[in-house]
Design a protein that fits this description.
Helices cover 39% and strands 19% of the residues. By secondary structure, it is of the alpha/beta class. Helix 4 packs parallel to helix 5 and helix 6 runs parallel beside helix 11.
Amino acid sequence: MDVSALKELLENVAAGQVKTEDALEQLKKLPYENLDFASIDHHRSLRTGFPEVIYCPGKTPEQTGAIVQRMLDKNAVILASRAEAAHYEAIKAVAPHAVYFETARTVVVRQGEAPEPKGLIAVVTAGTSDIPVAEEAAVTAEAMDNRVLRVYDVGVAGVHRLLARLDEIRQAQVLIVVAGMEGALASVVGGLVDCPVIAVPTSVGYGANFGGLSALLAMLNSCANGVGVVNIDNGYGAACLASRINQRICK
C-alpha cells in the first residue's frame, strides 16, 4: 500500500464508506522498512499489540542505534533486549530519554506518559542467581504496561520463604516462575495457585544441570496442572506470553 492508497483509505473511513475495523485489517498488512541490514516491521504493534523488539546480540551498536532512530516516530515504546553498554550508548545518542536496565540487559525507550499499568504479573525466582533472567521478564512486562510484583529468592531449599509470600503471589493474574538447578519451584508454585504459571528454566546450576537442560526437562515433566514452559533463560518470551494473558483478563 503506497501513500496515495493509504490516504484514500483514511478518507473512505472518514466518509463512512469503510468501517474502521476493515481499515485496520488492511493496515495490518502494510510493508516493512528495509535498511539493508535490517527490515523493520513498523506495524507489528497493530497486529500483535506491541512493537517489534530489537534483539541486540549479533547487531553492532551502530546498527542498533539506526533501528531505534527509524522506530522513534512510529512507536510510543521501543524495547531492546540482551543489550550491552555499547548498544545502550548508541541508542541514547538518538534517544536521550532511553533507560538501561543493566541487570535485565534491556533498554527501554518510552515517549510520553506511560498508561496506567494493568492487572498483576508476579515474577518469582528460586534464587538470587536467577534474578537477571527474572529482571528481563519483569522489565519487559512493565514496558508492555503490566503491573509487576517481584518475589525473589524463595526456592524450595527454604520453602517457608515462598509460603510467607503466598498471599501476595495469589493476587496475580499470571505467574512467571524462574528457576535453575533442578527447576522444582515451578511445580511447587503450580500446586499452590489457581492462575496460569509460566515456567522459565535458567542455565544456573552445577555440571549435571547441563546449562539449564535439567531444569527445562523437570518443568516440562511437572505434575502440577496449568504450568507452561518457555526456553532456557527466556525471560523476554515469558513476559510476552504473560502480558498477553494479563491484558486479555484485564480488558
